[in-house]
Amino acid sequence: MYKNPKNREKKNIIRTIFGFFLLGNSLFLFLSFFSFLFHWKNDQSQLYKLFDKEIRAENLLGKIGAILSHCFISCGIGISAFFFPLLLFLTGLIILFGGRILRNKYQSIIYHFLFFSIWLPITFYMIIPENGILSGVFGFEIGNFLISLFGKVGLVFLVITSIILYSIIIFRITTPKLKNGIKKKIQYLHEDIGWIIQLWESLKKKFFNDRKTDLSIDNPPFFDKKIKSSIINHPQTSILDSYKNEYVISSYMSKKDLENNKKKIIHILNYYKIGIEKIKATIGPTITLYEIFPQVGVRISKIKNLEKEIALNLSALSIRIIAPIPGKGSIGIEIPNNKRSTVYMKNILNSEESFKKSYKMELPISLGKTVFNEIFMIDLAKMPHLLIAGSTGQGKSVGLNTMIIFLLYKKKPENIKFILIDPKKVELSIYKKISKSYFAFLPNSINPIITNIHEVRDILNSLCKEMDNRYSLLERAMVRNIQEYNGQYEKKYHLPYIILIIDEFADLSLSFKKKQIEIYITRLAQLARAVGIHLIIATQRPSVDVITGLIKSNFTARIAFRVSSKIDSITILDRTGAEQLIGKGDLLFSNKNELIRLQCPFIDLSDIQKIVDFYGKNTFQKNGYFFLPEPDDR
User: Fold this and answer.
1) Residue 498 belongs to what H/E stretch?
2) How far apart are the first and last CA of the chain?
3) How far is Cα 613 from Cα 232, in angstroms, rounded to an integer?
């Protein structure tokens, strides 16, 4: 019995339409998924405004493509979602063109896709837990469930075992085949790399056998390097305690918090009829910066005046609005993170980024990390002085310690000398062990650290005389600064940098010699830069009677930790903002009208003690005392 030709033709038409439909859908999904990898951050806030004509998605296939990609990738199986368009494409080809090869392989391809759709999300979650795009919600949930059952090590064994079993089943690997294959590979490997092994042995004998480790200050493996090896573990960072990186937050959870905050910000701005084009978020160690791109015609002051309303809507302790962000066409809203990340000093010292930014600087100091998680470095020689203020317990002393430690790491003792003034007597006493190599002394002085207010006048007077003597040397040598002088007379008359650090300037300003101390400080701040004398002054009381206008005018580089009032913030920074910081090392750095928010690095007291002990050993005491000129009679 023959079939009706009309029915056969009708079925062919339906089959052709369905085949092209599958091909079209596969291309649509593939392009939307591919575009989602680059634009998912910007399209997150547009997903729930499907019928709003004014809002456009950056996805190549619009809002539908963004929503489908979000469902399949973020809320689904992560990067494995790309198997869906591939499967649809193969199905469409089989329907349209047939083909025995494709039909025979179709069932096995489906099995492969199913296995890797489960295996890949779990594996990506195990390897890169902070990247939720690769694992999706499926990988996140299943991975967490498996970790709760087997632990992280057990999950690693489970993933490796599953891929080994899968490979054995697919490639039908048996024990004899495995043995023969390994033997052949080893034989070929020995033939191919035999000359490399011989070369390595000769180099090893030549360079490493008779080489002894020298940790003396004359031949340190870590000072003033022009080339840095990523393999060598510097001895001074290896003695520090190891800390876990606390900035490992679940990408899925953090993305959820980001989206909630974005929705709340958009909601409150829409309530007050403020239109925005898009909103971006950048997660920092302490805060998250939300960049708002307002529509044309929106007044910045309207958003600025909604600071308290936005803080209330976000349930935030305090927020800071930057209107506008310098150099960008956006407005910034800084919101504290629920889970803060500690920036450890050891991680900064070990980082390649820190080396690249500091090796050309004369006096490099790391102030911490920015909201973009970049290490922020300054050159004290260019500042040339630093004024630090903040309330009690907000991180000033830790900040001073990190500055001293960073300078110890980067400079030899013959290139730098410290003068430490500590009226509280306990903050900087830990550095007494390195006083012989790294401190500048008054003649006939007993204490390396100045704690007596009566001696402060003498040390400042002596430092001014040292400054005058150095200017006389520069004049005779016909050079302009200490760098040029040391370049010409490096071997004969080397001049070290001198760093004066005052931990609590308010105590000195209340003494009976306040006027004399202020005159010396002002004179040093005005003239001492060219001769390599630099000041770092810290105070917990940034009032106008402590930080006078004469001092402020000579300290253009300033650091403000959290203060109690707007008046104190204006006193130290000439603007508000420091009262909105959240403490524990959160700071604002101001230099030449540029304001940057940073998280100060943390270093524990035990680590400071280890470093000081390391530098205080006998092998580091080859440098003699450095004496300042005799002060004038009182």
Assistant:
1) strand 497-502
2) 127
3) 22
pTM attached to this predicted model: 0.61
Beta-strand runs (E) in 345-423: 364-369, 375-379, 386-389, 416-421
In a 13 Å sphere around the CA of 114, the CA atoms on its Cβ side amount to 6
**How would you class 17 by CB atoms within 10 Å of its CB: exposed for 0-12, middle for 13-18, buried for 19 or more?**
exposed
- Measured CA to CA, the distance from residue 82 to residue 78 in angstroms comes to 9
Q: Is the pLDDT of residue 400 over 90?
A: yes
The mean per-residue pLDDT over the stretch 413-434 comes to: 88
The 375-379 sheet, strands edge to edge: 375-379, 364-369, 594-599, 586-591, 557-560, 386-389, 533-539, 497-502, 416-421
Yes or no: say if 540 and 392 are a contact pair by the CB < 8 Å rule: yes
Range ranked top by mean pLDDT from 247-251, 276-280, 539-543, 622-626: 276-280
Angle subtended at Cα 582 by Cα 407 and Cα 571, rounded to the nearest 5 degrees? 75
Q: How far apart are CA 211 and CA 580, in angstroms?
A: 55
DSSP label at residue 618: G
Tokens 């909630």 found at? 260
- Residue 518 CA to residue 499 CA, distance in Å, equals 17
Residue 342: predicted pLDDT: 87
Q: Residue 62 — left, alpha, or beta (φ > 0 → left; ψ -120 to 50 → alpha)? A: left
User: Quick one: pLDDT at residue 241?
Assistant: 57
Structural element, H or E, at residue 26:
helix 5-43
Q: What is the DSSP letter of 3?
A: P
Average pLDDT over residues 123-132: 76
- With tokens 């296995």, the residue in question is 115
pLDDT digits (tens, 9 = 90+) for 36-76: 877 766 666 666 666 666 667 777 777 777 788 778 887 88
DSSP codes joined into one string, 426-472 = SSSGGGGGGHHHHBEE-TT---SSB--HHHHHHHHHHHHHHHHHHHH
> Which pLDDT value is given to residue 379?
92
**8 A C-beta contact, residue 366 and residue 406:** yes
- Arithmetic mean of pLDDT, 247-267: 70
What six digits make up the tokens of 189? 């490997």
Distance CA 430, CA 320 (A): 37
Torsion-angle region of 315 (φ positive above 0: left; ψ -120 to 50: alpha; else: beta): left
Alpha carbon 208 to its chain's center: 36
